[in-house]
């Protein structure tokens, strides 16, 4: 097992194809690849948020709690990416998959964070702390992944309900968690100003 990932480059993708878990070669711009690549992108944005949280884990209990949620989410997203990279006929018994209970867990995480947040009276702009801003970015990537999975299901029909529900719930969780950590760090939220004006001219 330790040698499986020891060689990073294989040159097999130089022809514009990549391999699925079952060994099939598909174009690198195939919809399936775009879908699980976007799931990976979402996890990467979450990883940046976690990196920023690292220095606060010991001093802020909320940061440590959020990091635990985000660590679980990254594992779940890796399971989802692995699922998308595997055609249904190549799945195996015991393969880690997104289940209905994962969306339920996210609802618990949302409720936990919401309990200590002020209700929103207006739309907010993605901002705040570095971690909060990256969670907002992850939220938008998550929404794109969700759209791609719906398109993949329309085209190929092999995307289950559970991953779609999970991504829908995850985007909500990332929004709430961004607000949650911003409040903890004392980082202000900027309200949307519909009738905004540019800065005045300078002399």
Looking at CATH, the homologous superfamily is: Cobalamin adenosyltransferase-like
**Most strands sheet:** 2 strands, antiparallel
- How helical, in percent, are the residues? 55-70%
Quote the CATH topology: Hypothetical Protein Ta1238, Chain: A
General form: globular
* Strand content bin: under 5%
Largest sheet, spatial ordering of strands: 1-2
SSE pattern, N- to C-terminal: EEHHHEHHE
- Identify the quaternary structure here: single chain
Number of strands: 4
Mean pLDDT, all residues: 89
CATH architecture descriptor text:
Up-down Bundle
Q: What is the C-alpha radius of gyration, as a whole number of Å?
A: 19 Å
Low-confidence region ranges: none
Count, helices: 5
Count of spatially separate domains: 1
Q: Which CATH class is shown? A: Mainly Alpha
Structural class comes to mainly alpha
End-to-end separation: 66 Å
